[in-house]
Design goal:
Elements (H helix, E strand, L loop, with lengths): L2 E3 L1 E3 L2 E3 L6 E6 L4 E7 L3 H19 L3 H30 L3 H18 L2 H4 L4 E6 L2 E9 L2 E5 L7 H12 L3 E5 L6 H13 L6 E3 L4 H9 L5 E5 L2 H13 L3 E5 L4 E5 L5 H13 L9 E7 L3 H12 L23 H17 L2 E4 L18 E4 L6 H4 L6 E7 L2 H10 L2 E2 L1 E5 L3 H10 L4 E4 L15 E2 L2 E2 L6 H7 L1 E9 L20
Parallel strand pairs: 1-5, 8-9, 8-11, 9-10, 11-12, 13-14, 13-19, 14-17, 16-17, 19-20
Antiparallel strand pairs: 2-3, 4-5, 6-7, 7-23, 12-22, 15-16, 18-21
The structure holds nicotinamide-adenine-dinucleotide.
Amino acid sequence: MTTTITHWADGAGYDGTSQLWADVTNPATGTVSGRVALASERDARHVIGAAKQASATWAGTSLARRTQILFAFRELLNARKDELAQLITAEHGKVHSDAVGEISRGQEVVEFACGIAHLLKGGQSGNASTGVDVHSRRDPLGVVGIISPFNFPAMVPMWFFPIAIAAGNTVVLKPSEKDPSAALWIAKLWKEAGLPDGVFNVLQGDKVAVDALLQSPDVAAISFVGSTPIAQYVYEEASRYGKRVQALGGAKNHMVVLPDADLELAADAAVNAGYGSAGERCMAISVLVAVEPIADDLVARIAERTRTLRTGDGRRGAEVEADMGPLVTKAHRDKVAGFVDSGEAAGAKLVIDGRDVEAVGDQDGFWLGPTLFDHVTPEMEIYREEIFGPVLSVVRVPSYDEAVALINDNPYGNGTAIFTNDGGAARRFENDVQVGMIGVNIPIPVPVAYYSFGGWKRSLFGDTHAHGTEGVHFFTRAKVVTTRWINPAARPEGGLELGFPQNV
Ligand code: NAD
């Protein structure tokens, strides 16, 4: 039985009028599990219109009420996250525990946004000039658009919407058409939590839906996460239409292992961060930079661990508990397998070949097992391109300086990590690398919700990172109010004075 996945506008499902639908597949079986609506421009106007209509009332709703609804949403999500995780696994393919993990990280942003009353407090200066007081405040923007990628259907939208809503904005979320059900489930949860209709809306679709959001005069800001070419397009197009925009792009994350590192810890970390979620994470480690003379030893330890991984159907209660699920679509699976062909043809040493994996699950699933390349060099395609699959490339370098040069020459700057027991070296690394998020003996340094998430260089277009204080600033704009109230007991002299006012 296939399900129909619609838009969500004004607190209810909305089929739209386009009569266009796209298939949604279960990557572990290769079967079509549902069909998702693809918005026309008219459908987009309807959904954006719902957000616009709710905007003034929501912005005027008290902080106390907004916070109560956020707490209610947090409680419902916490109690029912298993349900959402099952939906994610069925459309994305990541194993159940991984799906629960992404929801928990998203929930941290909801918890951060529960403190919005404190985060929106402005400054106040009494008697800034004689008899004059000044205060600042942060107001919501209006309708904001969130456009998300396939790889985190719950966590990435949650980087943005809890703060946007808490700050008094209304939201239109455009999820990936590959795994669109999570967004609809979240919309229903908001309704249950008591969020007024029209504050959280979902617009399903492809480029037509995205362009409608970028071009709509009723949308004030865009938060985008996806691949670098589309991030750049979204940044340029939304800016052209006068919007505030943050567009997070792709990545090629390097993990440096210095000779003094704990190699057991480093090998575990490389396997976890290289193959978790089948490498479909923007913070996945895809390049391991081994500073000699440890490469032989480290590669052997990684290979030994990699051979124990089980690739298979990640659904809870599946035949075997898998470590890693399938890739999201057949096209993506074939693209990643093509990169393995390319690495082999370029002369990299294929230590473990995921193309012939024996997965536990339906033979029509989009399987590709963990793949390990050694002796990769920077000219090779597998080094240059973001693969976004379970392929880990080892590059051997003779020194720390060459490891850092490699990272800084790379066009991306999302995440990086160093493994060492030398505090001085780690500190130097922190200063030297041009990357937004750095881990020291931590392979996936995704910041906690009260710090901000974002890369440098071609991993982020715009200047504001996601969540944390930067997220609060992105979804609000400042007003500064300068006030003079007349003291009835000491009325000042009036009079005309056309010179520029000075503070005295
Ligand atoms: P994608 O760029 O293909 O799609 C992202 C969104 O853009 C989707 O909602 C999609 O419908 C829309 N889109 C696709 N093509 C478009 C077009 N031509 N015009 C307008 N909109 C379009 O990305 P994806 O494959 O869904 O996700 C994987 C990518 O996302 C990887 O590159 C990964 O590194 C990146 N990512 C980055 C971060 C980060 O924080 N920097 C986080 C997660 C994923």
